[in-house]
Design goal:
- The structure is a single chain.
- By secondary structure, the chain is α/β, with parallel strands linked by helices.
- The protein is 34% helix and 21% strand.
- The strands form 4 sheets. A 7-stranded parallel sheet has the order 5-4-3-6-7-8-9, with helices on both faces.
Length: 330
């Protein structure tokens, strides 16, 4: 550390530099939660540890960003335990290299599994660890939350129902209704499956509804990687996060999966939102937390939920297309 002399000629240590902050989150809504906390970390010397998704790549253009491989306990449940273990080992090594190089003072993490080793290494090198339980967990804790809680100096949960698992945590309800004037809308329905994974039950339902005449609006589909484009509908496998933001500013209706990132971003832009949660019983996700999320949002009157083409058509029929949805902060 450099030194400077005061008015008496006595050498004094230079003032400390900005706080070094590690922001650790896997793709989708977990990263979105960290972005909503930007006033907390923006002034620090910050960097991200996340997954190599469209949103992660967008982050890397504006922030120092490191990528770790995706892994989750659900991969073992779905019959790929060795893939999970291999990626977990890669994540362990990559996280160690990043954390030992960056030496953050603080680690802020919103989960999930892919960044558990960033939290672990942060604690081992003496950083203060702050864990925010997933926004997706209203009723019961996540596996990441249960694993990270013993490592955390501070913990925040977003529902009192999960407090029995985290008795020392602070509760913060993130849903706040805003009075902002939403942007002017165009007759566009934007359907998105999230970061990269296909979700053909959703995209097929939108195509079928459009073909049946239930969607007079222009349709733009984000289908996920590896899905063949639809001949008569504008389709994109993936979209840059900034492109998604631009579409949401224009779209009057959004049909999306049940991920918190997609829901919150669309609602904040004043879109009507119809959500189709991925279901574990259909092999679309590791568990049914998306159904839990969408149920909670629907109970607050923020979205509609549809699980089939018929339900999507009914939701579209019920929509007042002249109205604008209520934006809120997640």
């Amino acid at each position: 550390m450099s030194a400077q002399r005061d008015g008496l000629g006595v050498e004094a240590p230079a003032p400390p530099g900005p706080l070094r902050i590690c922001l650790a989150a896997s793709g989708g809504g977990h990263v979105r939660q960290l972005l909503d906390l930007q006033p907390v970390w923006a002034a620090g010397d910050h960097f991200f540890i996340t997954e190599d998704t469209a949103l992660g790549r967008s982050l890397s253009s504006d922030h120092r960003t490191y990528f770790v491989p995706h892994f989750a306990w659900g991969q073992a449940k779905l019959g790929a335990p060795f893939r999970m273990l291999g990626r977990a080992l890669q994540s362990f090594v990559t996280s160690a290299k990043v954390m030992l190089r960056e030496r953050p003072d603080v680690v802020i993490s919103t989960g999930a599994g892919a960044v558990i080793f960033a939290v672990l290494w942060g604690r081992l090198i003496g950083a203060r660890v702050i864990v925010v339980e997933s926004f997706a967990r209203f009723e019961k804790p996540s596996l990441f939350g249960r694993m990270a809680a013993p490592l955390a100096h501070d913990m925040v949960v977003q529902s009192e129902k999960v407090l029995p698992w985290y008795p020392k945590a602070q509760v913060f309800d993130p849903l706040r209704i805003l009075d902002d004037v939403p942007p002017s809308k165009q007759p566009i329905l934007f359907a998105t499956v999230g970061a990269t994974l296909p979700f053909e039950r959703l995209t097929n339902a939108v195509v079928e509804a459009k073909t049946a005449g239930a969607i007079p609006e222009k349709v733009i589909l984000q289908t996920g990687q590896g899905v063949a484009p639809h001949a008569k509908i504008e389709s994109h496998e993936t979209l840059d996060f900034k492109e998604v933001q631009a579409l949401l500013r224009d779209a009057s209706i959004v049909v999306c999966h049940g991920g918190t990132g997609s829901l919150i971003t669309a609602l904040r832009q004043g879109c009507h939102v119809i959500a189709m949660p991925r279901l574990s019983t259909l092999g679309e996700h590791y568990d049914d937390h998306q159904a839990e999320i969408t149920e909670a949002f629907e109970k607050r009157g923020l979205i509609q939920v549809a699980n089939s083409t018929e339900e999507l058509c009914a939701a579209l029929e019920a929509e007042d297309r002249r109205a604008i949805g209520t934006p809120f902060v997640g």
